[in-house]
Amino acid sequence: MKRQDEVIAGSSETLRQLNYIENLKKHYIDKASEIGRPLTAHIATFGCQMNARDSEKIAGILEQIGYTMIDSEDADFVVYNTCTVRENANLKVYGRLGYLSKLKKKNPNMMIALCGCMMQEDAVVEKIKKSYRFVDIIFGTHNIFKLAELIQARIESKGMIIDIWEGTKEIVEDLPSERKFKFKAGVNIMYGCNNFCSYCIVPYVRGRERSRDSKDIIKEIKELVADGVVEIMLLGQNVNSYGKTLETPMSFSELLQEIEQIEGLERIRFMTSHPKDLSDSLIEVMKNSKKICNHLHLPVQAGSSRILKIMNRKYTKEQYLELVEKIKAAVPNISLTTDLIVGFPGETEEDFLETLDVVRKVRYTAAYTFIYSKRTGTPAANMEEQVPEEIIKDRFNRLLKEIQKISSELSEPDTGSIQKVLVEEINGQDNSLLTGRLSNNLLVHFKGDPSLIGKIIDVRLDTCKGFYYLGEAIL
Asked: Domain named TRAM: which ranges (predicted)?
């Protein structure tokens, strides 16, 4: 695995990669003519919103080259953008590679690329080289911008191309990107993580924190708004650390104030916020903002200060609760969501009851609850006192029940009110309904014409279903 420490000027590297794209266009026009149809591509994305955003960049490059994106893995180019937060995610990828090998035997034009966090692990790459020799390209989290160059190398070499970087300071701007939604978009403001929570593999596979220049972020958002985007999600492993690596430091709260001034932008969201870095200035900006959504994702992970220390979270239960009180005092109706891990090594019943206590005191609108699973390569994987599976499942069910009860209690009072809703899509379960998202991040399903998708409209919340509502559009 090689380390790329030198920063290549963004504009020169962008031009270099665009040149590869142009050269490949000619190749693929000839290839499509030869086989008598357009070449197709499919991207399967595993994991977090950072991966989803990376997949949009991959799609943009492939479309510029000349591929038509499709929903089936029966395509000429298949990319697996992998996650490695949990080891069973790795097993899922290996299983699906077996299926791809059969497809590749039927289609001699097929090319397979693997990228993302899983590829940053040396053992994974060695296994693929040995057991999945039909894979064409392997690259990691730091050099997605090089995809066209890697495709060119694969065409010329006729063998597997592996290009994994251990880390980078480089951020390449202005390459193609294909958004999933025309009216909302994710915008990376930083990459990497410096926190090294004892259960988490992310700092090892995504590298150290590095922030984008605010001018590039503002430019990207303005271009998105000009293209019809009304809501943006600012993305980073810890957005509250934004700006610390810039030549001229800038805080996240200062960045938000600049973004707030962009005309035509209606809504601002961001994630993820690490509690230890959430500043008073950020709370003040949220309080005074007209565009920041009434929702904050604030992962607590556990309620026991003892467990939090072992997790290396760098705050106590009391500090977290004090922070929540500060936020609620400034933004009284804010919707708080969180992440919770059940069954961390050494967790006792008393520790778990502390987590339940936090849930009851904070009263989260929703929580992403996870059963702890060992992650090779993290300090927690080698800890003694692994909690028995039956105890973990019992605690998980008790926690889930409490969260669902509180969520329903919080949502019920808004029944009958009229709220602003961003209409996002046709409902996946009932195509006679549309689905929209409130400022507080809850969903509402209602009847309406698909032409409303992408617009912010008034919806009356008629029936509360706990985590979502049924409503009626007020037009």
From this structure: 412-475
Question: Which helix (DSSP H) or strand (DSSP E) does residue 79 occupy?
Answer: strand 77-82
pLDDT of residue 9: 43
* Residue closest to 346 by CA, chosen among 299, 379, 318, 315: 379
Reference 205, options 309, 329, 83; nearest CA is 83
Helix (H) or strand (E) holding 283: helix 280-288
pLDDT of residue 327: 98
Cis geometry, peptide bond prior to residue 272 (ω within 30 degrees of 0): yes
Rg (CA), the chain: 23
Task: Give Cα 259 to chain centroid, integer Å.
Answer: 20
> Does residue 371 sit in helix, strand or coil?
strand
In this prediction, residue 378 carries a pLDDT of 83
Alpha-carbon distance values, 409 to 364, 403, 438 (Å): 10, 10, 17
At 451, list the tokens: 């032409």
- What are the structure tokens assigned to 157, written together? 């070499």
Residues (pLDDT < 50) of the chain are 1-9
3-state DSSP of 163-201: ECEEEECCCCCCCCCCCCCCCEEEEECEECCCCCCCCCC
Distance, in Å, from the CA atom of 453 to the CA atom of 461, rounded to the nearest integer, reads 18
Q: Is there a binding annotation on residue 115?
A: no
Cα angle, residue 166 at apex, residues 162 and 171 outer, rounded to 5°: 95
Q: CA neighbours within 13 Å on the CB side: how many for 328? A: 14
Tokens of 239: 């957005």
- Give the per-residue pLDDT at 428: 83
Nearby residues of 420 by Cβ (< 8 Å), 6 or more positions away: 438, 439, 456, 457, 458
Strand partners, 474: 458
Residue 87, pLDDT score: 65
Is 293 annotated in a binding site? The answer is: no
Between the alpha carbon of residue 462 and those of residues 306, 432, 447, 468, the distances in Å are: 44, 17, 12, 11
Q: Is 193 annotated to bind ligand?
A: yes
Domains for the chain: give ranges and CATH numbers: 12-163 (3.40.50.12160), 181-293 (3.30.750.210), 306-412 (3.30.750.200), 417-473 (2.40.50.140)
Annotated binding-site residue? 464? no
Cβ neighbours for 171, distance < 8 A, ≥ 6 positions apart: 10, 191, 210, 212, 216
Backbone angles phi, psi at 385, to 5 degrees: 60, 45
| 152-209 pLDDT per residue, tens | 999 998 789 999 987 766 666 667 778 889 999 999 999 999 999 999 888 888 888 9
* 116: its two tokens: 């993302």
